Amino acid sequence: MSKHYRGDEPTALGDLVARVAEARGLGELLVRRRLEAIWATVVGPALARVSRPQSLEHGRLVVGVASASWNTTLRSMERRLLSVFAERCPELGIKAIRTVVSWEEPAAPVAPEGARDYPSAAELDAMKLSDQTRRDVARTARTISDDDLRQRFERAMLRAQQLRQWRLRHGWQAAGGDLVPPGREGRR
């Protein structure tokens, strides 16, 4: 990383988490997994079948769609989608959406109707983490020398653990290091 964080500069949580993840070689993978995990719940099952996130750079989400008509539909929803992303995953820092007619079949099928990939904030808050999980996150966060960055990273990692716990309680299954929603087991 050529840019160094200075404590007196205001920095978005998403930027800070991204820097730490990138320094550990996980940045792009984490962002892609996060987007894939919430995409169907943000756009709904019909649009999720014909669109998918392709990349996120500098706050611009690029989404591939199956046709020009779906491109128009998704573009007309941009304001609402940005609002949902800001509410559900502000750490991604999505500020704009660019749609392109460029379609590849998704690697995994869309979750069945009614299956949810992402809980509400209240549902996440209700997920109580074990003391061991909290210690593990704190131990990892201690490797970050900047106090502000360390605190933000720790909060983000605790939230990720709450999401994992919620998913396990809602029927998700572990498959090759990932969690798979109900109805997708065995289809990778």
Shape by Cα distribution: globular
What would you call the quaternary organization?
A: single chain
Largest sheet: 3 strands, mixed
Strand order of the largest sheet: 1-2-3
Question: Roughly how much helix do the residues carry, as a percent range?
Answer: 40-55%
User: End-to-end distance, in Å?
Assistant: 34 Å
Rg to the nearest angstrom?
17 Å
Task: Report what the structure shows.
The chain is of the alpha+beta class and 188 residues long. It has 2 domains: 11-108, 2-Layer Sandwich (GMP Synthetase, Chain A, domain 3), CATH 3.30.300.180; 119-171. It is built from 8 helices and 5 strands, in the order αααββααβαααββ. The protein has helices at 13-23, 27-43, 45-48, 68-76, 78-88, 121-125, 131-141, 147-169, and strands at 51-57, 60-65, 96-101, 173-175, 178-180. The strands form 2 sheets. A 3-stranded mixed beta sheet has the order 1-2-3. A two-stranded antiparallel sheet has the order 4-5. A hairpin with a 2-residue loop joins strand 4 (173-175) and strand 5. Helix 1 packs across helix 2 (27-43) and helix 7 (131-141) packs antiparallel against helix 8. The relative contact order is 0.13. Mean pLDDT is 77; it is low at 106-113.
